[in-house]
Amino acid sequence: MTIEVRVPQLPESVADATLVSWHKKPGDSVVRDENLVDLETDKVVLEVPAPVAGVLKEIRLSDGTTVTSGQILAIIEEGAAAVPGASAPAILAAASGATAAAKDTVAKGAVAKDAAKPDTAKADSVRPDAAGGKLSPAAKRVAEENKVDPKTVAGSGRDGRVSKSDVVNYLTTKDAASPAAAPAAAAAGLAAKAPAQFVPAPSARTARAEQRVPMTRLRARIAERMVQAQATQALLTSFNEVDLHAVNELRARYKDPFEKQYGVKLGFMSFFAKACVEALKKFPAVNASVDGSDIVYHEYFDIGVAVSTDRGLIVPVLRDADQLSFADIEKSIGNFAARARAGSITIEELTGGTFTITNGGVFGSLLSTPIVNSPQSAILGMHKIQDRPVVIDGQVAVRPMMYIALTYDHRIIDGREAVQFLVTVKQCLEDPARMVLHI
Questions:
Q1: pLDDT tens column, 123-144
Q2: Domain limits of the chain?
Q3: Residues 6+ apart with CB under 8 A from 112
Q4: Which option is the CATH number for 126-175+210-214: 4.10.320.10, 3.40.190.10, 3.30.390.10, 3.20.20.150?
Q5: CB atoms within 10 A of CB 290
Q6: Which residues form the catalytic set?
Q7: Are 302 and 316 in contact (CB under 8 A)?
Q8: Are 324 and 318 in contact (CB under 8 A)?
Q9: C-alpha radius of gyration, the chain, whole number
Q10: DSSP states of 231-258 as a string?
C-alpha cells in the first residue's frame, strides 16, 4: 500500500516553506516517525517524519523548492523492505506543469547526487564530516550548491559541527594564492636625481573571489522586520549604567546552593528579566504597542530573550515572566538557547512578546543601540561588564559596571518614561531587595 507524505499544516503566520534537504533517497528503508526532510520557514526549521514504516518509493519535490501546506512531498510503500544493491529510481520532477526538459534536468541532478552519497539505510539530520563533526542543513545546502566536499571544511561548532558560516569562510579563502615576492628592480629603475616614488607592493591575492549566497528565509525575515521597525516607528535610544556589585555578591554567595537545589546556574539574565518586569509595571507604556490609531496596553509580561544561532537571531518568549521564579527563568532561557541552536524550537515559542531583552555583552559589545522587535515598542540592550573607577560616597572605587540602553518608540513613550524606566532597572539591580519587596 502506498502512503503519501505531505507538507504539514503550516501556522497561520507562515505562508510557505523551503525544502532544505532530504535525508533519504528513493529506495531507502524508513521507519515510522523518522525524519525524512527539513523544511525551512522564516522562523524555524520543521522536520517531516515518516507516517509509516516501509520503503521510500518516490520523491516528488527536490531541494530548494518552495512548498505550501498539504503538498505531496514523497510516496512510501508501506511495509516493503529495501532490496540490497538495487538502484534507486530517479527523483521525479518537482512542480506540476514543468517541461520535459526541466524534468530531465532534475532527474539527472538527483541521480548524480545519489551516486556521490554513501548508500546508508538511515541518515541523520546532519551529516558527519571527516573530523567526526556534523553538517547543518544550511551548511549542507551551501556546500552542495558550490560543489564543496564537506570533509575539507573545519567545523567551528560544538563537537566539530560545520555551520553555514564555516562553508562560506572556506569558499572565500580557498582561492587565496601564496604571496608573490616584491619586485626588487622597482626602486633601481628610478632616476638618480628624481624624487623618491612610492611603489605599492603587489597584492598577495591573485584572485579577488566573491560568493553570492541566497539569504535564508530566517535572515530575510530578520531583514524585513528590522527595516519595518526603522520605517514605521520613531525610534530613540536612552542610556544609563549599572553597578553590578550587589548582583555579583548575591551570585557568589548563593551560586552553589542555588545550582544544587534547582539544577541550573544563577546567571545575570534572571536578574535583568525581573528588574524589567518591575520597571514595566511602573511604566506600562513601555509594555504597550501601536495598532493602527490605537495604543494596546498589555496587562501581562511576555519577555522576549534574543538568542543568537547559526541561522540568525531569534527571540523566544518567556510567558508571564512576572510569575516566574529566578530558577524558572534560568531554566527556560537555557532550554530555549539549546533548542534554538539545534533548530527544534517551535513557532509558538517565537510569537508574541511585549518587550525584549538582548545581550550584546556576551560578544564583547560595550555599547549599542538595539532595534525594536516590531510590533513591540521597546527593547533593552545589555552590554559587557567592565571594571571601572566610580565615585561612591566621595571615594573612588573600582566596580563592575555595565552600560544599558533602551531603544523605544517615541510615538507612545516619552523621554521621561524611558529615562525613568532605565533608572528603575538600575535601582533594582543595584539593590536587588527591591525586586523582592516590589518597591
A1: 344 444 444 456 777 777 777 8
A2: 2-123, 126-175+210-214, 217-437
A3: none
A4: 4.10.320.10
A5: 17
A6: 410, 414
A7: no
A8: yes
A9: 28
A10: HHS-EEEEEEEEE-HHHHHHHHHHHHHH
Identify the CA nearest to 380 among candidates 403, 363, 414, 350. 403
Q: CATH top-level class for 2-123?
A: mainly beta
Averaged pLDDT, 83-98: 42
Residues 114 and 25: their CA atoms lie apart, in Å, by: 7
Residue range 226-264, pLDDT digits in tens: 888 888 899 999 999 999 999 999 999 999 999 999 999
Q: Is the pLDDT of residue 87 over 70?
A: no
Q: In which band, very low, low, confident or very high, does the pLDDT at 17 lie, cut at 50, 70 and 90?
A: confident
CATH of 217-437, one of 3.40.50.700, 3.30.559.10, 3.20.20.70, 3.10.20.30: 3.30.559.10
- Beta strands (DSSP E) in 320-365 are 355-359
Angle between helices 415-430 and 245-262 (to 10 degrees): 60
Q: Which of 115, 135, 114 is nearest to 124 (CA)?
A: 135
Backbone dihedral angles phi then psi of residue 2, each to the nearest 5 degrees: -95, 140
User: 215: which 3 cell numbers?
Assistant: 539569504
What are the φ and ψ backbone dihedral angles of 310, each rounded to 5 degrees?
-60, -30
CA separation for the pair 396, 398 (Å, rounded):
7
Do 255 and 430 contact (CB within 8 A), yes or no?
Answer: no
**pTM, entire model:** 0.61
Average the pLDDT over 163-181 and give the result: 62
Backbone angles phi, psi at 301, to 5 degrees: -130, 90
Question: Mean pLDDT score of the chain, rounded to an integer?
Answer: 80
- And the C-alpha cell for 131? 573530523
What is the number of helices (H) and of strands (E) in the chain?
A: 10, 21
CA proximity to 401, closest of 269, 247, 255: 247
Q: What CA–CA distance (Å, rounded) separates 220 from 18? A: 13
Q: Please list the alpha-helical segments (H only) found in 48-136.
A: 100-116
- Whole-number Å distance between alpha carbons of 415 and 182: 59
Copy the grid coordinates of residue 349. 515559542
Let me know: does 296 contact 286? Beta carbons within 8 Å.
Answer: no
Beta bridge partners of 355: 303
